[in-house]
């Protein structure tokens, strides 16, 4: 008897390798769980069972995660065999002529991809409620709450136990926000650590990168080892790793200098549960032998970076829409894109070429300032979010003012004031699930390291996981699951 719910992707692959279970049986169980919980969650879309079974029948690559069921985010991870909506009616059922580098590496690991997971249109929101899916994606911990975005469907699917790990991507926190909201581990690697090609040279001026949603640190480690490294013709490369991510898990870093920030980086207060989470984490880190000091990266112009981020992302959204419309040869129709995206496209038209280049320079200057702050520390500790998971609808794309949606008093950057900073700097950053509210909602704790120090960050996260395990914590909706025999 194999208890699917108690095993991470690494352990499941081990069971396949020793013959206790076969890939077809694991796929059966994953699909059974889709049927059991996806009606409530609306997280898994574009099922490709026939493709998955064909790949199993033809023989899976003998990779480290051979036979493990897996899902791709419905944004990026371009693959010939898996059409996509990119979270939008404009792009519905788009097909690709060539596999992306990230997908090719995932396939080589032996994973069994059987569908995609929901994302907001264009990936520009912290909630996953795209019209193309017919309704919002819901959080397994509380169906009235969002799982976050833009990798919200992947987070909901992993938290609910449909798959042990799933693909995501992160341009402003899109792995770490849903990981925090769903009680998962999520790591954004150093800029260019993972491949972007061949469809993209750099996403959002280098701020976007692929990633993974997992229940265990070691699953993220093994996925990163399998996918890291520049692809053919990459415009730049991340600093070389001193060791593999899996090797980094085996050592515990000693006496790290940790800066503790309990407010936003602009000094604004955040929700009491987020403050409680970060103080509890600080106490734990001190007990583990690290040195925690209150500090605020005040020299870094976070507000200016956020405004630049908003302009850059609007331009990226407008480019994707224009390319789609040009390729099909007919104008955009009413209702094909949602109000926030319409507003983003309109805003992009007001961003001049010199303003765009100024925004890129602002982002780079921010990275230099933050790296200067980090010269005195190994890790910057903060909450992951400014508050617990938001209610469904609060960050839906029905809002018609993109700039206000992002930077207004009740906008995205108030709700998520930490994560986008490290997309701008390119530094590695992770969220660990260490705190739950009295209502049972997950609240993540955020850790960022210096540029290129990915393995140091992951080794610290693994040490935290050993000291304060979270794998056993499951949302109510996951109780509908059964073991495979």
TrEMBL record:
One of its GO terms (molecular function) is catalytic activity. Coiled coil: none annotated. Belongs to the amidase family. It holds the Pfam family Amidase. It comes from the Bacteria. Signal peptide: none annotated. It comes from Aliiruegeria lutimaris. Residues 25-458 form the Amidase domain. Transmembrane segments: none annotated. PROSITE patterns: AMIDASES. This is Amidase.
